[in-house]
Amino acid sequence: MQPTCENKYSRMTNADFLDNLVEKITTTFDDKKGINHIKGYNLPTKNEIFAILNDLLELVFPGYSGTKNYDITTIHYSIGTLLSRIYSELFQQITKVLHYNCEITDCEDCNIPEMAADATEFLLESIPKIRTIMKRDVTASYEGDPAAQSFDEIILSYPGIRAITVQRLAHALYSKKIPLIPRLMTEYAHSETGIDIHPGAKMGNGIFIDHGTGVVIGETTMIGDNVKIYQGVTLGALSFPKDESGNIIKGMKRHPSIDKNVTIYAGATILGDITIGKGSIIGGNVWITEDLPPFSKVAISKGKQVVKKK
Fold first, then answer.
1. Of the four, 171, 284, 285, 296, which is 20 to 30 A from 37 by CA?
2. CA–CA separation, 221 vs 272, rounded Å?
């Protein structure tokens, strides 16, 4: 006769199990630790933001998405229709995040419709300027990469161009102090390209990010014209100043300023509120935390970091 095994533990029914689990989970909603947003209606809708972003990219590089074809005789109508849709959808999302911002700051006198319209119009009015700058960025990529065969190849496939374009669009909203949306835009580009550029960074013309994987550019970074950056470069903060209560002081300049015509090779780390002078060449895998005068050269030689200042 086979021995029988008796279950010494009585199991709850599925309903009891779920009821108990619901209670445990919802209890954690009351701890005010900031990782739940019950009134989620004032948060931006991520998928809608990404759809708007792709429409904005269509304005910057019309015809390259493969989803729209244009005819020169009807181009005004096509672009007008696209602009109208972007305006409506972007205005709605900006209105939501401004309501959200007023909730967390206890603001009661903001004219949210006017602020939303101003930010929406500012971004859309920036498109011609962004297109002009992006022409220089694409040219810099073409002239800086011997493997580049055409502008079309660069626009369609180079991650650096995509990340830079998105950052320029996001920066327009960032400059208008729009919360959440600019960061969603650049993090979307980050997830696609491996290039992390904060929307607050200020970038000049003719920027070329080659390969790009692992590039990190912090919020208060300033990059001059005709700067070339290779993969794995970090332009970051050396330390975070704190107030008397030990809280990080936000809004201070804490990232590098890269002057024009600088080349930064793969794996270089440049930290803190320092300046890299124009025309400098920063070799791979170096670590820099001090100012460099113009036309400096930094490299690793025989296991040591060597700085040559001109």
1. 171
2. 9
Total H helices, total E strands in the chain:
8, 15
* Amino acid at position 14, single letter: N
Q: Count other Cβ atoms within 10 Å, centred on residue 2.
A: 4
Residue 170 near residue 182, CB atoms below 8 Å: yes
**264 touches 210 (CB < 8 A):** no
25-to-39, 95, 232, 236 alpha-carbon distances in Å: 17, 31, 40, 37
**Which tokens hold the place of 296?**
């400096």
Q: What length is written for the chain?
A: 310
Let me know: does 242 contact 248? Beta carbons within 8 Å.
yes
The span from the CA of 277 to the CA of 260, in Å, is 8
* Residue-wise pLDDT tens digits, 250-308: 889 999 999 999 999 999 999 999 999 999 999 999 999 999 999 999 999 988 999 99
Summarize pLDDT for 116-146 with one digit per residue, the tens.
999 999 999 999 999 999 999 999 999 999 9
**Separation CA 72–CA 57 (nearest Å):** 19
Average pLDDT, whole number, for the chain?
A: 91
Q: At what angle do helices 75-105 and 181-193 cross, to 10 degrees?
A: 120
pLDDT digits (tens, 9 = 90+) for 91-109: 999 999 998 888 777 787 8
* Rounded Cα distance, 65 and 62, in Å: 7
